[in-house]
């Protein structure tokens, strides 16, 4: 998973648009214009995971010190998302597509920049999911 363009300076625009839309379409299954509830992620579950990452992002912004050093202190909590999503899968409250997507991203997050880019991507995914399923 690449978050940045070839220069390494800028987040790839596709990450926040086409790739986020594609992920949302995997998480919210439609038949015509109707959401197939049993195969789709509920907005409450999506928001629960997103809020965890936003809380970690706030911790990263609020703590004093060199950014990468501060990130190292929250990195274990980022990686713990794998366990949380596995638990949610076992409870059958998230679709397999979401589990695979989140685990793939968590695996690639190694720096504060990676983390911040992922959170932006996740925010775009949430927006597109709500666009597909606004009433949950």
- Separation of the first and last Cα atoms: 30 Å
Based on CA atoms alone, the radius of gyration comes out at 15 Å
Oligomer: single chain
- The ordered H/E elements are HHEEHHHHH
Strand content: under 5%
Task: Give me the secondary-structure category.
Answer: mainly alpha
Structure notes:
- By secondary structure, the chain is mainly α.
- It has one domain (14-132).
- The chain has helices at residues 13-16, 18-27, 43-62, 67-79, 81-90, 96-108, 112-132, and strands at residues 30-31, 34-35.
- The protein has a two-stranded antiparallel sheet.
- Helix 2 (18-27) crosses helix 7 (112-132).
- It starts with 12 loop residues before the first helix and ends with a helix.
- The model has no long low-confidence stretch (mean pLDDT 95).
Per-chain topology:
Layout: H1 13-16, H2 18-27, E1 30-31, E2 34-35, H3 43-62, H4 67-79, H5 81-90, H6 96-108, H7 112-132
Antiparallel strand pairs: 1-2
Summarize the entry for a quick read:
By secondary structure, the chain is mainly α. It is 67% helix and 3% strand. The model has no long low-confidence stretch (mean pLDDT 95).
Key structural traits:
136 residues; mainly alpha; two-stranded antiparallel ribbon; 2 strands; 67% helix
